[in-house]
Amino acid sequence: MIKRLLDVVCVSIGMFLLSPVILAICLLIRMKLGKPVFFRQHRPGVNGKVFEMVKFRTMTDERDENGELLPDDVRLTKFGAFLRSTSLDELPELINVLKGDMSLVGPRPLLMEYLPLYSERQYRRHEVRPGITGWAQINGRNALSWDEKFELDVWYVENRSLWLDIKILFLTVLKVVKRDGISHGGEATMPKFTGSDDSKEGTSSSE
């Protein structure tokens, strides 16, 4: 209850203070990339419940001769890369926090297609609301392997507290300033998760 109250109060204040920045980004994306300004995608939330996550758009819609989208690193624009490196592309997720789909702190919401690939332990990351930032983000972000990231997510679930959330928020600011762990070994962000050795048994998804 206290965590939810902290989310609502902090996000309300943050959106008011950041409204000029949010408006400026909207205008720049409209000028550089056109419509739409926002990127929307279904993601699994707490207990695997589906919600629509909103971010600022950072990529073009360029496709190959077969109509398939080109790789992320080709479609990612310089302005989009700047938004990602500064985490400004995450600002619209504040709306998701106000709606209760997300929290300021928690495991990052990943793709729906990953749900059946998790081991029973990895699936525990869905015991809490997904977050804009989390324990994995301040301990390596996209420079981590998937197994390392999931282990950090589960550690957070098992050790979560108000003081840990405050620590994560403070360290997130430092990470954003340093722009650490933005990408993983030549990828625009992270390679796709295809399952790990201990996830072969799978787990049931709550879609």
Ends apart, CA distance between termini: 25 Å
Percent in helix: 25-40%
From the spread of the alpha carbons, the general shape counts as globular
- Sheet bearing the most strands, described? 2 strands, antiparallel
Neighbour order of strands in the largest sheet = 1-2
- State the domain count: 1
- Give the strand tally: 4
**Proportion of beta-strand residues:** 5-15%
Q: Top keywords for this entry?
A:
single chain, 207 residues, mainly alpha, two-stranded antiparallel ribbon, 4 strands, 39% helix, globular
Description:
The protein is mostly helical and 207 residues long. Helices cover 39% and strands 10% of the residues. The protein has one domain (2-199). The chain has six helices and four strands. A hairpin with a 5-residue loop joins strand 1 (38-44) and strand 2. The chain starts with a helix and ends in a 29-residue tail after the last helix. Residues 199-207 have low confidence and may be disordered.
Please outline what is shown here.
The protein is mainly alpha-helical.
